[in-house]
Task: structure prediction
Amino acid sequence: MSVLRLFSLALVVAGVAYPALAKTEKEFVADAIKGDNSEVALGQLAVTKGGNDQVRSFGQILVNDHTKHRNETAALAAKLGVSPPDGMSTDAQQEEAKLQKLTGDEFDKEFVQYMVKDHEKDISEFKEEASDGDGPVQQLASRSLPTLKEHLRIARGLQMAE
Result:
């Protein structure tokens, strides 16, 4: 059990009303699917609006990898009794609105910056989930890390090239 979950449990036992710090497995899976939906949508946007070939290529990688991951995660969600969400995360919706207004180098810079920040956050969350046991959700989180790290590596490389 993670330190955050132990802390949350201790607060509950002590009778302290405090919002949960760690996600449940079902919340993690639902959020992972929203994340995949977000990466696919933003990746598609990069494919069509990217100012250079590298950004468009990265967009296609995101579409391919996160479509595959979404399918795998949706299958696990079904086993857990979780209805896969259709939408994107709130952050990604806001980013999509911002990106829709940009073109060329401005689009590329904003897109890459968002992808670095988003993948850093995802890697942190997936590492935490992967370290919280050895069940199917934790195994999925662990299997996902190499791809997320590769996406971050690509995004950082594009950021350095600017």
